[in-house]
Amino acid sequence: MSHFFFICLLAVFPAVSMKSPIFGPQEVSSVEGSSVSIKCYYPATSVNRHSRKYWCRQGAKGHCTTLISSEGYISKAYEGRASLINFPESGMFVMNISHLTSDDSGVYKCGLGISSRGLSFDVSLEVSQDPKKISNVHVYTADLGRTVTINCPFRNVNSDKKKYVYKKNGQATFLITDSSGYVDSGYTGRARISIQGTSQLMFSFTINRIQLSDAGMYVCQAGDGNSADKSNADLQVLKPEPELIYGDLRGSVTFDCALGPEMTNVPQFLCQLKNGKACNVIINSRGKKSQDFEGRILFTPKDNGFFSVHVTSLRKEDAGRYLCGANPDGEPKEGWPIQAWQLFVNEETAIPPSPSVVKGVVGGSVAVSCPYNPKETNTLKYWCRWEATQNGRCPQLVESQGLVKEEYEGRLVLSEEPGNGTYTVILNQLTNQDAGFYWCLTNGDARWRSTVQLKIVEGEPSLKVPKSVTAWLGEPFSLSCHFPCKFYSYEKYWCKWSNTGCRALPTQDEGPSEAFVNCNQKSQVISLNLNSVTKKDEGWYWCGVKEGHRYGETAAVYVAVEEKVKGSQDARQAAPGGEVIEPRARKIESKVILGPSLFAEEIAVKAIEDPAGGSGAPADPGSSAAQGGSSRALISTLVPLALVLAAGAVVIGVVRARHRKNVDRISLRSYRTDISMSDFENSRDFGAHDNMGASPDTQETALGGKDEFATTTENAVEREEPKKAKRSSKEEADMAFTTFLLQANNLAAAAQNGPQEA
After folding, report:
1. How many CB atoms lie within 10 A of CB 87?
2. What is the DSSP letter of 723?
3. The predicted structure's pLDDT at residue 12
4. pLDDT score at 721
5. Whole-number Cα distances in Å, 155 to 2, 163, 198, 201, 518
6. What is 531-580 written as a DSSP string?
7. End-to-end alpha-carbon separation of the chain, Å?
8. 97 against 756, higher pLDDT
């Protein structure tokens, strides 16, 4: 029975040629005196919008006689009852014909250009006699799958007599049901007789879930023999008139199905007629989805038995016939209400091609280009993730006005490119859980919606950055991003992420306290530099590459800004640049499941823990504490050199022991030193300036077990000395010895009484 049902449906929806881009209804039927509206679709190009539209009738030899055109022509047969209206923005024109007669039946063409060789589509119009004009027969009409009730009158003498309903099959008749409870097997559960009472000289015959085979002539009978009352009823089952849907290749369409309130709680479905055999369910309210439509179909239930199905990223093979309906099994079955569509996919589309699949690696990124109608620049743009739930849904992740879902903060950006009809969505810090289908949407023309599948594959991210770092408040900061040679010719950039996008950082010339970007192509590193870190600098930073308006790979790093407090047990030693991985930065990093892997040499700063499990105070450059901490780090890492250093110390001790045999020990107060006469061979180095051989910036001297600093402010450039008379070796030695005694005396006094001038 089901096979027969689909054969009947195929007879209702004959095959449609898809070669011409003009599309309309293949068959139109009506009755005398009524009217019809015939829609013809065309590709909405500039040329087509201004081309001539026509409606012509085909003759016996293939000639097509124009009856009405968009240029104002109208034939005498159509005067006063026909019109042609063009809707250029929708790519459609409509033929309205009223006061139909049987002479209007025939084959027509709707088309563009010249009727003899223009683009056209064949339409068959059938005008039948009004069934209400058939004598002695009451006509009933019912939609397929619905319910019809036939009223059967009788005389008072047959009020208490048995009631029957027969159906004519040619010249023969067979019993459908009677008032004793009999029901034919073909009508079981669907047909019944209702008798209101003896005061009502009429009984009712009801058929539920009308089928195509139910159409025909029925005979109502009350009583038996020659005194029986009989009446005839003609039941016409209305074939589902297919609604035309015109879609563009790579675009999207929506099927709006209205089955009525009685189907609200019945499982609903949308199926596609394939190969002339069956209607394959592509989605239903019980969670079934066709693999061919995976990731690009949505089922949206509505009130009162209404629902809609949205299909995006249309393909050529999607063109054809569709049915929506309701059934307890969520499958098409004869006797249940259905609604029909004919989908045409226009291959001459203005929607640009875009990849249907993008691939990324764990820790890497992808950039997706989303098309939209270029005429709708100011529309809102969205990006959502398709979920294979029971009915399918697509919750929004980001929109062009700045909304970003919380778990995607720092990872997702929607970038608009005004004027070129596309916007770009960038997702980085990829994880295996990100694999799936995503939709590009706007609140404008729904035909431009598209979908893309994200696949996670094996590999390593091309761009290398730390996962998270800490910068010290008020100090300079530098952050590096490594990129491979394949991006040598690309534009490199750093930007600061926010809900509204990723703002490109200004150059160094725009202000000493602002961020800037510089690139060393030989070392393949792009550096972000902050001259003086402020609290506003905290947040997500992206390193990326692009080629013109096309975005490439990106990598994200979270920069936490902390205030360095001297003596704090929680501070970390910082390398040049101020980058330190801190607990707060790690807390932000934990929001991302996985981050890009890093090589050890790419992390500019490491946190150094003390043996007790805590951390030392921050060390100022040049201080003894800093040198002590550095020594401890070196000892812990250069243990294998300890034996070599010990051996060197023994050798030095032996040499100094021999040296002391030739020196004198001098004592000035508590200050002692060993002096050899060879130390005074160059007295000029010490006779003119104090500490000339020391660093011009900072000198360090340990006195009395305390660390003190003596910072010189002298000019580091040595002045030219005047020529002096040559002295003998003995004179030079005496002068040097005198200078030394003076310096030693000053140092001893400084240790006890404070600094003095020499």
Report:
1. 13
2. P
3. 46
4. 42
5. 41, 12, 10, 6, 103
6. SS--GGG-EEEEEEEEETTEEEEEEEEEEEEE---TT-TT-----TT--B
7. 120
8. 97
